[in-house]
Amino acid sequence: MDNLNAMLEPGQIVCHPQQSDWGKGQVQSNINGKLTVMFEHMGKVVIDSHRVALLPLFE
User: Fold this and answer.
1) What's the per-residue H, E or C state across the chain?
2) What is the pLDDT of residues 29-41, one digit of tens each?
3) Residue in 39, 30, 28 with CA at minimum distance from that of residue 4
4) From what superkingdom does this record's organism come (predicted)?
5) Where on the phi/psi map is residue 54: left (φ > 0), alpha (ψ -120 to 50), or beta?
């Protein structure tokens, strides 16, 4: 599977499609298919871009 989050950059706001209770998250870094995201209700999470496609939020 391709890197599903290649276009995401630090500072962008996203949500996890299967974990809506985590709240909104802010991308901290996107390096070699590993995204570090700080979520409102979950804290810092490292996500494998080859397995999960985060949804960008445009507010």
Assistant:
1) CCCCCCCCCCCCEEECCCCHHHCCEEEEEEECCEEEEEECCCEEEEEECCCCCCEECCC
2) 999 989 999 999 9
3) 30
4) Bacteria
5) beta
Neighbours of 20 (CB within 10 A): 10
d(C-alpha 59, C-alpha 3), whole Å: 24
Residues forming beta bridges with residue 15, ordered by sequence position:
55
Looking at residues 14-41, what average pLDDT do you find? 96
pLDDT value at residue 10: 97
